[in-house]
Amino acid sequence: MDVRVELGLEGAARARGVAIVIDVFRAFTVSAYALAGGAVECILVRDVDEAVEVAGRIPGAVVSAEVDGLPVEGISISNSPTQVAGLDWEGRTLVQRTSAGTQGATAAAVRAERVIAASLVVAGATARFVRALDPPLVTLVPTGGEGRHVEDLACAELLEARLAGRPVEAEALLDRVRADDRYRRLAGGSVPGFPATDLDLALQLDRFDFVQEAVLEDGLLRLRAAAPSSR
Questions:
Q1: How far apart, in Å, are the Cα atoms of 134 and each of 62, 97, 196, 209, 229?
Q2: Please, are residues 20 and 131 in contact by the beta-carbon 8 Å criterion?
Q3: How many domains does the chain have?
Q4: Which of 147, 63, 67 is nearest to 107 (CA)?
Q5: Residue 213 lies in a domain
Q6: In a domain, 231, yes or no
Q7: pLDDT (tens digit, 9 = 90+) per residue, 171-229?
Q8: Which of 3, 11, 172, 230 is deepest in the core (most CB within 10 A)?
């Protein structure tokens, strides 16, 4: 298995093979909490207007959106796992628009054979799933901050080690995230639409035992939960 790393949205467009698109803070943490709570699927879109239009066609659908990391007027959920974790998702659909994760997934879907959305809360399941597939090529795509956000890089490092069957000091990786200046700023709770509790939820390593695979159907990129292999 050849594992490559491509950074940011430009890297996502270059992804080939099985693309693992990473957004820890917070798109694919949000989707994981929604799917764990009973959501049927999460639909990933590029812009806010499309998110609103798509949700309007699906009974009970909910929109989660941010632009440049900030809330969008008129949309109650701003890409926050704290908000998502407190809702009843049974049978419902979440429509997501974010500036990094959903953009990366839709870009990767153009040429990659398969697209998987990853974050720390589903890292273990993601690694097991991909190892069971045993594809010739895997592309890891950290998306945040054009691929330079420490939490996404840490997740990529963790996944790369697990795909190779190498031991990894997961707590050391999480400590690196917590020591980052950006983490400390976000932990202050002063960023609109980004409660400090989002950080705690996002860093709960391997909390969920499912993988998030994105499939293009009816012109929409649909993210659903699948059980990982035991391998």
A1: 35, 31, 37, 19, 11
A2: no
A3: 1
A4: 147
A5: yes
A6: no
A7: 999 999 999 999 999 999 999 999 999 999 999 999 999 999 999 999 999 999 998 86
A8: 11
Q: What is the CATH number of the domain that holds 50?
A: 3.90.1560.10
Residue 9 lies in a domain: yes
Average pLDDT over residues 146-152: 95
Taking the mean position of all CA atoms in its chain, how far away is CA 112?
17
Cβ atoms of 72 and 22 within 8 Å: the answer is: no
Report which of 109, 96, 98, 83 is spatially closest to residue 51, judged by C-alpha positions.
Answer: 96
CA gap 126, 8 in Å, rounded = 20
Query: Quick one: which H or E segment has residue 66?
Result: strand 62-67
Q: Cα–Cα–Cα angle for 2, 3, 6, nearest 5°? A: 130
The percentage of residues in the chain with a pLDDT greater than 90, rounded to a whole number, is 97
pLDDT tens, position by position, 105-125 = 999 999 999 999 999 999 999
Domain ranges, residue 63: 2-226
Residue 179 exposed, middle or buried by CB count within 10 Å (0-12, 13-18, 19+): exposed
pTM: 0.96
Q: Assign 231 a pLDDT band (cuts: 50, 70, 90).
A: very low
Within a domain: 78: yes
Residues 6+ apart with CB under 8 A from 210: 32, 35, 36, 122, 125, 225, 226, 227, 228
Report in angstroms the alpha-carbon separations of 72 from 47, 206, 219. 11, 30, 24
Residues forming beta bridges with residue 224, ordered by sequence position:
213
Provide the residue type at 29 as one letter. Answer: T
